[in-house]
């Protein structure tokens, strides 16, 4: 065998001559990098992600809600109202309105009952700022003698006003001015009552349909009746009426409003909203 063809030992043959415990320069660098990642890099990365998440949540919470701005909410649209800032929700169970679960409003007609109804909507006519009036979907009028303020009414209070008028018409023996004649021989007060109540009944119909309550009435088994009976004492998601009333009372129009005074302003309502007016 020539020297050029001399036997060259495999590396396995010389393992005893290799220091396996001595790391190579490359493996040393890899080890140091891994140690840095575990002790410094990974905590730093976690800290950065945590800070980013906190900033993201803070920005989200500071953004005005779509409902408050009257902007589209998903596939739905929530029109602007200055009272949206007062809206809070709660769960309520209605009075059934039958003996055993009567509402305080089901007492016989009396001055006390009239006052209870009046207290529900005695903040009916409001004054809002020009800034608030500018964002309304329908234009409203400036208040004469009160620069910078515009007249407004929340529909919930108009609904209560209407319901009260229907209630009074149902007890015309007590509220004689709200007696509705079944003939064409109206006296002036009766004609006014008939037209007003007709308006109120249909307005309330539209409002009920508009705010369609999707709370579920259930049937439950009644052992005494040996049948499943309808149960109306179920939970409803409601807007807190007290919160909205509190908001309105801070904006009640105190002075008399003169509708004969025309005040021009520079508020421009989009064409879409003008068509709704």
Descriptive account of the structure:
With 277 residues, the chain is α+β, with helices and mostly antiparallel strands. It has eight helices and eight strands; from the N terminus they run H-H-E-E-E-H-E-H-E-H-H-E-E-E-H-H. Strands 1-2 form a two-stranded antiparallel ribbon. The chain is globular and about 70 Å long. The relative contact order is 0.11. Pathway: Mycotoxin biosynthesis. Pfam families: UstYa. The chain crosses the membrane at residues 42-61. Belongs to the ustYa family.
Name the features.
UstYa-like; 277 residues; transmembrane; two-stranded antiparallel sheet; alpha+beta
Main-sheet strand order equals 1-2
Q: Kindly report the average pLDDT value.
A: 79
Q: N-to-C terminal Cα separation, in Å?
A: 110 Å
Q: Can you write the helix and strand succession as a string? A: HHEEEHEHEHHEEEHH
Total beta strand runs: 8
Helical stretch tally: 8
Radius of gyration from CA coordinates: 37 Å
β-strand percent reads: 5-15%
Largest sheet: 2 strands, antiparallel
Based on Cα principal axes, name the global outline.
Answer: globular
Organism: Mycena albidolilacea
Protein name: Tat pathway signal sequence
Pfam families: UstYa (PF11807)
Pathway: Mycotoxin biosynthesis
